[in-house]
Fold these 4 entries.
Entry 1:
Amino acid sequence: MSTHKNKLWLRWSAANALSEVFGLGATFAAIALLLPKIERQQTAGILLAFAVSVVCGAIEATVVGLAQWWAMRPWFPQIRRSDWWRATLIGALLGYAIGYLPSALLHIRATTQTPIAEPPQWVTLLLAAGLGIVAGAVLSFAQWWVLRNKVRSARLWVPANMLAWAVGMPVIFWGMDLAFSMTTTSQRVCIIGGTLLVTGAIVGVIHGRFLMVLSQVK
């Protein structure tokens, strides 16, 4: 593996790690501040909370999309910043809609019926991996649309993201579960920040490896 390829991989992985900390962290913070006030309104509040959660995904999409474009720019000068940001935004909004819909439906059920018992952690993590596969496909489809006529082997981008998020999503679920078992806010913030950093790095390392193939760097 050449030094030039290593530079792309490291730059991409670092950009993903840091942008997930700030982008996803800011998204979670916005959701955490807004949702408790909205969800008190029963079913209407839950539906509104779902909409707010999806819209807040634009924060992560903007930070991650711009960071990714910066990382890939020297190797992919044919990709415009506005195109990559727009594709990332579309994928993120659809991904958030898919990701938050089951939770919204369960909350609505809990207001009208007996709440469903929480499954064992291994089941939750397995479901998170499945969610990651679906979310990875959704998140990357619009990006693939940007790449398809400009980059050779662009078809690899969607399965690359599916694999990356199949690994990354369980890490987020595990980290969040651990964070909310803590007793102080500072502990929770540190664990959530660390979880997002590790998740971003893992995801970036995995689909960054595929990006190296797409770059056709010799």
Note: The two ends are 9 Å apart (CA to CA).
Entry 2:
Amino acid sequence: MRLTPAMERYVLHWGEMGARWGVNRSVAQIHALLYLAPKPITAEEIADTLSIARSNVSMSLKELLAWGLVQRTPVKGDRRDHFEALRDNWEILTRIVEERKKREIDPTLSILRACAMEAAADGQTAAETRQRIEGLLEFLETLSLWYGQVKGLPKPVLIGLLKMGGRVARFVPKKRAGKARGAGDG
């Protein structure tokens, strides 16, 4: 597969962004290539196109398969594995958010719950420190609850909410000044 200058620029940029988001550069570049590819391609074609070692391609594909961002696709008359990326941007976003929540937020919630219980029981942790732990726990639990509610909304509703932007605030009751602030507010 030959990359046009625009495709190459996109693949390289996606690799840079992946690295900034904590994703291996090769994983991000392979995802970008598969997203742009007009048809499913083999690991060998990926390695050749991106000048990446075949072993690196194999490990990166395993990661992308685990995230659900790439799938194996059979090609008639060819016994090799071919791969293609999801094309629906909403599906890509929801899979990434779900995986990050599972890998990052959920374990953090478990640790924060344990820390909050331990701090409340140990008699040594300062009240201010306990409050910070409990505040962060409440904030992340609220965020997790919100995510659980929003992820089940139909795609057209989500798109509508995003397009509303800040106008959605019209539907949220206003609190009077001096009242309790939201979860996790410092």
Note: The chain has two domains: 5-85, 89-171.
Entry 3:
Amino acid sequence: MSTTEDPGQVTQLLHAHRDGDQAALHHLLELVYPQLRKIAGRQLAGNSGQTLDTVGLVNEVYLKLVDDRDRNYANRAHFFAVTARAMRQVIIDYARKRTAKKRGSGEAALPLDEERVAVEREAENLIALNEALERLGQNDERLLRVVECRFFAGLTTDETAEALDMSNRTVERCWREAKDKLRKVLSR
């Protein structure tokens, strides 16, 4: 993953945060904000018309990370792995809200148009993906973590291996296995 931030500076800020410097997390998030926007943009690509945009997604993730003040990040890759999980949670929460509105959660009926139908369809797909990921994680937690790092954070094999303390070969095997299992579950 090509980044504009200085990995050494990211690591220094992570260590400062771990040592109790709460301001370090804010500086860290400012530093990695462009990378988080790129990741969010990839996650939201092709979902035209939705109200959750890259800025909204990054801001929601930022709030999750700031609220989790007790977390200690081992390194830059671990930080992005945690960020990937937070991003997944925000996206799935958003999708659930969209499908709840679609089913009439007390809200006034909205006129149907192509753009709105596309968003609703994507929300259902995201929820189906999340359910498949949850089942995958129940059977093999490592596969779920690899998917979060590779798919949701866009980490490379090397970065995923570092974040999850695995060998590159294990990451590659888990990535292939997870994709195969998810493909089978989602094709049903």
Note: Residues 7-187 form one domain.
Entry 4:
Amino acid sequence: MKRWYVAQTQMRAEERARINLERQGFEAYLPRYLRERRHARRRDVVKAPLFPGYIFVHLDLETAPWRSINGTLGVSHLICNGERPAAIPAGVVEDIAAREDKNGIIPLQRRPFCKGEALRIVSGALADCFGLFERMADRDRVILLLDLLGRKVAVQAPLGAVSANH
């Protein structure tokens, strides 16, 4: 029976892994979203892996030569539980794929914060610090005002590293 498995890719080699897996006859799935990239005073919107460093592979362990996946260009190794690859629960990959738009992009819902809303930093060096939302720095980062050493200091944090203080 075919199930979905996860392969860890080499650094920034998700697309190369997908292409090479498909050349070998494996069904591979690389979910992507649109990400803003800043470089040399330019801003571009590029397709980026939803799960950097990982790719999904659909196969039947009983009939497919799954050990060859570990030797595929771009792939580091299949994620295993002991000696055998660990299957993803049924429906997870299908739910992700169902969210794709007509261009194969998964639209991400950005949480709108209101200026002055209390937020908690949940990861990183300033984890568990509280601050007030000032503005979005770009699509993936927020600027918070933290009360440090008796004054307000503007701090940038990844959007995923903050949580509403409810």
Note: Helices lie at 14-23, 92-98.
